[in-house]
Amino acid sequence: MTGAGDTGEAAMRTRGVRLAMSELVTSSMRTRTAFHARTSVASVVSNLRCMGEFLVGEGLWRANPLRWMRGPKVDPRRYLPRRVSREQLQALWGAAQRRPREFTRYQSVCLLAILYAVGLRRGELERLDLGDWDSASGTLTVDGRKTGQERRVPVGEGVWRCIEAYLPYRHNRLELTARLEETALLVNQRGKRLSGNAVHAVLARLAKSAGVAPASAHQLRHSCASDLLEAGVAIPEVQRILGHAVIATTMRYIAIADPARAQAMGQHPINRFLGLAPEEKGQCHDAA
Fold first, then answer.
1. Rounded-to-integer distance, Cα 249 and Cα 26, Å
2. Domain at 92, CATH number
3. Which pLDDT tens digits describe the chain residue by residue (288 residues)?
4. Residue 254 covered by a domain
5. DSSP-assigned letters across all residues of 110-151
6. Which of 73, 187, 220, 286 has its CA 20 to 30 A from that of 167?
7. CB of 214 closer than 8 Å to CB of 207
């Protein structure tokens, strides 16, 4: 038979374990998140709290010692997607077309075309296989490793030509390196799958050659979304193209590309006060 003293001592030990666990997690979080983005830290803290609640629900923990933990405050307006300017994009295209070797030239053009036109994540581009490209229908099949949902994205005629023009050089490179069994769509000069780091290196090399600021694969993804919205493509369609799990993620781009809002502001009475016709709204005349 257990006495009240034993029960109290067990409760104190349990409480001590919880406090020690909380201090351990807190110390680990401080150490590991010192140089991470606030959004990443907030996501990790949220996941830890949810894990604690799960363990309580499963009966493995009596209480969640992580419930009190709060991550950094995140203002969504501070993290608006950064797009690539039209001038920067044109410079990158020019640098890709000027690459001296034919294989790297067609590879770079194909890479840029897919990243900007389809808005792929860097990992999605790296994992593309030759079998994911359907030339007859002009569609790319993108894996759903991040969202859990595979998607098929049609490409325009220009992108279709970029991919088809690259494929003979891909085959020649695989034949030259005796790697005809390689399944990757994008390969390097050694005939191996083009890695995510290699994609980053190609973009950095193009930016240096063009004399413009470097553009990441994710910035090209942001540019794809923003430019589609500016062209009048509906938000649900942009969501499906980019593979966003929730439409709220796509809605962030409205802050930087909202054609409906721009059209509405074009009807503002100030345009009449300044003597601007609809087609002259980019100019400013002296008011009469």
1. 30
2. 1.10.443.10
3. 445 555 556 555 555 555 556 566 666 666 666 666 777 777 777 888 888 888 888 888 788 877 777 767 766 555 556 778 889 999 999 999 999 999 999 999 999 999 998 889 899 999 999 999 999 999 999 987 877 778 888 898 999 999 999 999 999 999 999 999 999 999 999 999 999 999 999 999 999 999 999 899 988 988 888 888 888 888 888 888 888 777 777 777 666 655 555 565 566 566 665 665 554 444 444 433
4. no
5. HHHHHHHHH---HHHHHT-BGGGEETTTTEEEE--TTTS--E
6. 220
7. yes
DSSP secondary structure string, 15-70?
A: HHHHHHHHHHHHHHHHHHTTTS-HHHHHHHHHHHHHHHHHHHHTTS-SS-TTTT--
Are the beta carbons of 189 and 69 closer than 8 angstroms?
Answer: no
Query: How far is CA 143 from its chain centroid?
Result: 14
- The rounded distance, in Å, linking the Cα atoms of 26 and 45 is 10
* Distance, CA of 155 to CA of 162 (rounded, Å): 11
Residues labelled as active-site residues: 121, 146, 218, 221, 244, 253
CA–CA dist 185, 251 (Å, integer)? 31
Determine, yes or no, domain membership for 52.
Answer: yes
- Residue ranges making up the domain that contains 32: 10-79
Burial of 91 (0-12, 13-18, 19+ CB in 10 A): buried
Residues 220 and 119: beta-carbon distance below 8 Å: yes
Residues in the chain: 288
Of 31, 62, 79, which residue is a domain's last?
79
